[in-house]
Amino acid sequence: MGEVYRARDTRLGRDVAIKVLPADFARDADRLRRFELEARAVAALSHPNIVALFDIGTHDGAPYLVSELLEGRTLREVSSGGPMPVRQAAEMAVQIARGLAAAHEKGIVHRDLKPANVFVTKTGHVKILDFGLAKLARPEADEFGSAVTEAPSTETGAVMGTVGYMSPEQVRGQRVDHRTDIFAFGCVLHEMLAGRPPFRRETAAETMAAILREEPAELTGPGLAVPAALERVVRRCLEKEAGQRFSSAHDLALAIEALSAPSTTGTVPAMAPTTAPREPILRSALTAAILVALVVGAGGLAWYVRGRMADASSTPLTFQRLTYRRGWVSAARFAPDEHTVFYSAEWNGEPTDVFSRRLESPEAQSLGYRGADLLAISPTSELALAQDTGQPRADLAFVGTLARVPSGAGTPRTVDSNIVFADWSADGKELVVARDTSHGNRLEWPPGTPVYSSEGLINSPRVSRSGDRVAFFEFDPLNFSASVVVVDRLGKRTALTGKFQAGIPGGLAWSPKGDEVWFGAASSGLSQEIRAVALNGRQRLLYRTVLSTRILDVSKDGRVLVALDRHGGRNFFRAVADATERELSWLDFSIVTGLSDDGRRALISEQGDSVGSVDVWGELYIRDTSGQLPQKLGPGYGFGFSSKDRVVAAMGFSPPGIVLYPIPSGPPETIALKDFVVSYVSGLLAPGYQDVVVTGTESRRPPRIWLVSRDGKRRRAITPDGVSAVQPVALTPDGSFVLGQPGSQLDGKILAYPTATAGGEPQPLPGLRDGEEVAGWGADGHSFFAYRPRELPLKIYRVDYRTGARTPLGDIMPADNAGRLFRNWVIVTPDGKAYAYSVVRWQSELHLIEGLK
């Protein structure tokens, strides 16, 4: 496919690889166009198991690609010595499957997966190479899989290497899709395990005939000890009919991961490890995996998932999936009989509802409480519900009205307001509630009797089985961290854990014996695992899988209700001239935090697992709204452009403080701060751009809005305590006011605070209604754009703040509303002719785990 050079990117200071493609690419205009389109699509993948593509171009008539530089060997070289150890092959195969899954989700099919196109770095990380180039190398096979024997005639091995991994539909010249890659994957995994491809024959014609008519070679022979279950996975990948293969690479990855766990029937032997297991972050040495048995029939897909404990007990785990629709499960509880489950969920963009189902039946029944979230269920089957919830808090919990439903049926009876969470006492006679206040949260036991107050947020309180204490997360909204805390009836507080990263607390419940608290937490990124902590603070890891796991309830006999969560943020942009929106997302959790006045550049913050560090809250990128590849600025979190779109001001992490990134390039400017914690940065203040507007705190006081000089020597508070700058648009264009929100986030009161004098009297924005936010400032100097962030469709208004007059500008409606849309940030250009917005979406499935100890 061309020549590859090692090169140095002097602008960003990194080594890269440049692949120069044959000049005949450039001589065919249509082929070059397809090459550019395909390359852009591949560049958008940004997955750790796919080689990253940085740029494309043409030089002296030859197209080229700039990608990350990898050091190591191809899988062809790694496996040239014969069969690989089963454990090693399975671990590499999972990484390949994950990369394929990411590409397939974007509609991209590799078409030429083979060992030569899989790279293994020196650290053992697997990367798939040359996505989309197989299609480009055979332009006449643009829609179908023809030209199957095209290869240099002098490279017989290359012919066999390519033909030997083609699917039956490619050999026949039929239309191909993602299942073609799954067939090729099966060929690659077979070769890794057996040391030879499954259909290799003496000639290309004989190989193609074997692909069409013969069964793959068995994974048996001298020196081979492939588990029967793994061989079944390989054979399913190699089914002649595409419909009989795994339906997705995601399911395939889960199935292979599971094979480190023994079957409850004893028919699936565990794969022998090639190295000693590593000690995990917590003290117990635990590994966990999932066994996915895909049963495809008229009713759809049933998942059965198993894992195992890697400690002395080695108890097998079983999973039972309890929900099957697309959406978000907010809460779940066992009924007193422990064979009925109550849960609240919102499906397919519909309002939240409360459901019940028997464990022996797949059918769930709506209880008819639309708009309500389940909080708890008592020993006498009385439900506690949250109704009339508003905007989510920083921990993504909702404040609402507490209602009770005797015996799980009938009309809810309203009993209290400003309630976030509730749980029943062990005897079912009274409730414990977490109440939202203007200065944090308060734990009341029973309602109206405070036992503990927190400056932070109280999340997921649960009464102990003995009834003498309450465990909960104490969430710090300043740095998105949480601790597991226990409080007794006298209000004595005991912290069982230190602070850990908590983009969203992962649920909490008491263990079956009541001697531990089981909770969800993330080691890095946003993916939660289940941990246990005893009352003496000793911790252990209970369960970890590839999906984020949120614990919802634990029965007395040890069964566990969990939500398997998927989360992410997606960005979209549209100008008046565009027929449809275009997506500007980059990695797994993209948030658009700024839009240049001309609508040509967007500021994007990445905050998900792709960041992967508990010390870094985000990575900032600049992306051209035409869809070109983004430019990485560096770590930080900030909103908007300053100084006529030439500077981005952000919260820095190493060292903590403020960082200013010049646009389009240049060294960053760091502002170090002493005895001051920055929550987020709103931008540089005009005119002069010598002061940075931040929300932060000193001396452990509540946060407020400050002006910090660019030399870091001066800072001045301009609002009272408890006022945070609103986002993503906080500063008026002339710098005279900053928009702040006092008290609870649910108050919906946004005020304009003068920047010239400290403690100046705030002013309301005429025409801005409670619950609305500002999406931008009009170019006319006397208007702004307003919207309500959780209302769909998002209705955008131009508001004249001199008179309060409102003019509808248009509606924005995300194409996919399944899941809980926690946030929709909208930014409108001053001329009102372009907008960008983000959808922060969380989706989940409810599962029952048996076997956790």
Quaternary structure type: single chain
Number of H- or I-type helical stretches: 11
Gross geometry: globular
Question: What share of the residues lie within helices?
Answer: 10-25%
Q: In summary, what is this structure?
A:
Helix content is 12%, strand content 38%. By secondary structure, the chain is mainly beta.
Please write out the topology.
Elements: E1 3-9, E2 14-20, H1 24-27, H2 29-43, E3 53-59, E4 62-68, E5 72-74, H3 75-78, H4 86-105, E6 118-121, E7 126-128, H5 133-137, H6 156-163, H7 168-171, H8 178-194, H9 204-213, H10 228-237, H11 249-257, E8 295-297, E9 300-302, E10 318-321, E11 327-334, E12 340-347, E13 353-358, E14 365-366, E15 373-377, E16 383-387, E17 400-405, E18 413-424, E19 431-437, E20 440-444, E21 450-454, E22 457-463, E23 469-476, E24 481-488, E25 493-495, E26 500-501, E27 508-510, E28 516-522, E29 528-534, E30 539-543, E31 548-554, E32 560-575, E33 582-583, E34 590-595, E35 601-606, E36 619-624, E37 631-635, E38 641-642, E39 647-653, E40 656-662, E41 669-672, E42 677-685, E43 691-697, E44 704-709, E45 715-717, E46 723-725, E47 737-742, E48 751-754, E49 763-764, E50 773-777, E51 783-787, E52 794-800, E53 806-812, E54 820-828, E55 834-850
Antiparallel strand pairs: 1-2, 2-4, 3-4, 5-6, 6-7, 8-9, 10-55, 11-12, 12-13, 13-14, 15-16, 16-17, 17-18, 18-19, 19-20, 20-21, 22-23, 23-24, 24-25, 24-26, 27-28, 28-29, 29-30, 31-32, 32-33, 32-55, 34-35, 35-36, 36-37, 38-39, 39-40, 40-41, 42-43, 43-44, 44-45, 46-47, 47-48, 48-49, 50-51, 51-52, ...
Helix pairs in contact: 4-8, 4-11, 8-10
